[in-house]
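Exercise 7.
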Amino acid sequence: MVSPIIKATGIDKYYGTYRALTDISLEVANGEFLALVGPSGCGKTTLLKILAGFEDLSAGSLVIDGEDMTEIPASARPTRMVFQKLALFPHKTVAQNIGFPLHLAKRPKPEIDAAVRRMLELMHLKESYLNRYPHELSGGEQQRVALARSMVSQPPVLLLDEPMSALDAKLKKSLQAELKHLHRHVGTSFVHVTHDLEEAMMLADRICVMRAGKIVQLGEPSEIYYRPANAFVAGFIGDTNLLPAKVTREGDAFRFACDVLDCANPIMAADQVAPGVAGGAEAALMIRPEMLRLLAPGESADCTITGTVNEYFIRGASIQYRIAAAGTEIVMDIPGTSTLPAKQGDPVKLGLALGDLFAVEA
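Solution. The predicted structure, written as tokens, is:
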């Protein structure tokens, strides 16, 4: 990675005897959008607070914008943070909230006014909002004001702690698009903590999956989604099917046996097997729901699954089926149609391409 804006090396964090972070090492490039995801208590917000300077690290080192952050307080770091609860000043107007960081830096008033108006335009806020107070704004407008305040001083790094978690689904989608646009426009490096896995896939250049204070996998969204490091990552990022199997090495490839699948040639290439899978070991075959399809009578596929429809959910653009097959529930997503291709209790046959399978540790 060329010129990382953030370089964390071997970071540990203890609260008394409790170890919240263990040997965290990662780099964030200039202008990169990194998402931190993981279950509650995995340490992602603790890591964000260490980057911001609100928590001290117990061991390791942290360099931001070429400077060691060990003795640098939060107020002097080249970072800004957008909090989950936004923390807008209720007694200040929109203009005063946005311009507050520049006011603290004692910038001239004409410069502050010009910067505030630029941010207002960038965040698609009306000029008439300048004299309003936070309680006079909608949730989405407050969100935009918080983002504008964090970006007005053009920090090298923006840290976001689940700022959209309390918004309704439609507004969240709109602000996700705004956030992506903002990132591309300003070129600042973003580090974004989120529980919304779809949000991480949509926005981030890379995703860091954490569990129990450790980094489990760090990679591009497509790598995390289609080539997870293990069953935890596979099950945590999006819906998936994990089918019990036994995998054995056969030359440069791997042969698998799975009670749920009927495959004419059950052989996978080496790049379809996670590094942690040892030949002859119990494993799980991952298949994403959208890679399955309903087969018409007489239609064939590399591998098939025979089962019965347990339930279905109409989502508009797609239909999700849950199918009982050999004691396992299979999740399948197909494009939405005006007529249901199968209903509850119907026998069905599913097809998939051999190349869409990926083996992970059980």
